[in-house]
Structure formats: structure tokens, C-alpha cells
Amino acid sequence: MSEERIRVFREIVIVVVLSLVLVSALGVKAVYASSGQVTLRPTDDTFADSSNPGSNYGGLGYLQVMNYQSAYSSDTMIIWLRFDLSSIPEGAVIDGATLSLYASLVGETYTVQACSSSNNSWTELSLTNGNMPNYNTTSMDSVLVASANQWYNWTVVDAVENALSGNPKSVTIVMQEPNPHSSAAWLWFDSKESQVYPSLGIDYRPELTIHWSSVVPEFPTFLVLPFFMMATLIGVTLYKKKSHASQKRARNSH
């Protein structure tokens, strides 16, 4: 084998080896994708009161829901919660998202709905009934709240999935009672400002637990083999061209 062919052959080997290394690295990245779970506390939580449209309740240790309607007056209270989703990996396939609230005071049975809002610009110390953002009144999940001193859970997968495509990645969940009540019965859930007693295992702050089954790799696995075949084909073609050129130069030199 001539020195020219040896040089060309070495170049082809280098191309193929580099292709193998790259494909291997991409393949490992795809295999590394795995499931996971995280439990989040709200960054902001408060409620809006229609009878006091300019008042803010972000610093209280409870969150209140109400829908009082009578011939003489009415009052609705809606809970707002926001969670930071930045800890969820890119490409996570969400298969579970549960909002958990602890009911500390239940004066009457309520049917509480979990809704969503695409507006994450509000803060717990500025939101009021008069300036609260619009929200989707379609319920993601509805739960009957009848007893105090226990946890209640709502499925909110749709809100989390939609929020992950936004920037910044945060989700707003709105809690409401759509059915009017004839009495102004209170329904309180603990807020993120509620008292915590770690030594007693008491922590009733709101939680959002998110589970993902897998993470979609940035380089899809089904492209690995075609990529390697293409790189190899390029290498072989380059070898043939250089080999042919080398032979042609050798003939012309005689």
C-alpha cells in the first residue's frame, strides 16, 4: 500500500472513530433519561375577597374559599397559588401532578375546584380582588371538602404541562367554589405562612407533588443509527475519492 493510500486510510479511520464516539455519547444521553419526582412549596399564595376588592391577604397563615349568595349581599373568596417549576428537567414527560391542601377550618361542606391561570406576574403581597389576573374557570379537578384537620388532593397535570412550556417556568393554580351557599360559612386551608413544628412532624403548608415517567432526550434515540450510517458512508466515499485521485496521479506520473 502506498504512503498516499495509508494516509487516506488513516483519515477515514479517524472519521469513523469520531463518529462512533459521538454516537456513543448521544446514545448514553438517551439511555440516561429517567423518571423522577419533586414536592414543591408555593412561592406565593393568597386569596382574593370580592367584598374587599382592594385588600391583600398574602401575609396570613390561612387561605380562604367562599361563595356566599343571598338576596341582600354576596361574597366570594378565591385562592391563588404559584409554584416554581425550574427544578423539573427539560423534556420531562409529566404523568402525575397533585396539589395538596390542609383544611384547618370547615364550617360547611364545599365543592372546591382547581383551575389554572397562564398569568404568573402576580405576587402574594400585591394581588387583590380588584387586580387579580384572568383565569380559566374550567375545573381540572373537583373535591368535596367536608371535614377539618385533614389533607385534600387535586389532580393538576394539565396546568403543570402547559406551564412547563412557558418562561419563566412557574404554574398558577386557582381554587374556587362554583356553587353558591346560603350562609357565610368559612373554609380555611393552611398557607405557606402557617406555623411549622418540625419536632412534632407538623407542616401543613401547601404542596405540589410532580412525577415524571421519563425525559425525552434532546437527541432522539431513533436518529443514532442513521447518523452513524451516514457518517460511515461519508467516510467510505471520501476514501474512494481520495484513493481514485491517488491512482490517477500515479498513472499520470508514468
From the helix content, strand content and strand pairing, which structural class follows? alpha+beta
Domains (count)? 1
CATH arch. level architecture: Sandwich
Count of alpha/pi helices: 3
Percent of residues in β-strands: 35-45%
Taking Cα atoms only, what radius of gyration do you get, to the nearest Å? 30 Å
Shape: elongated
- The percent range for helix content is 25-40%
What is the C-level CATH assignment? Answer: Mainly Beta
Q: Mean pLDDT score, rounded? A: 84
Count all strands and give the number. 11
Element pattern in H and E: HEEEEEEEEHEEEH
What can be said about the biggest beta sheet?
Answer: 11 strands, antiparallel
Low-confidence stretches: 27-32
Distance between the termini: 18 Å
Reported by name, the CATH topology is Jelly Rolls
Kindly describe this structure.
This protein is α+β, with helices and mostly antiparallel strands and 254 residues long. It is 26% helix and 35% strand. It has three helices and eleven strands. Helix 1 packs antiparallel against helix 3. It starts with a helix and ends with a helix.
Task: Describe the protein's topology.
Elements: H1 3-32, E1 36-40, E2 44-49, E3 62-69, E4 74-84, E5 92-106, E6 110-117, E7 136-145, E8 150-155, H2 157-163, E9 170-176, E10 187-190, E11 207-215, H3 224-253
Antiparallel strand pairs: 1-11, 2-4, 3-4, 3-10, 4-9, 5-8, 5-10, 5-11, 6-7, 6-9
Helix pairs in contact: 1-3
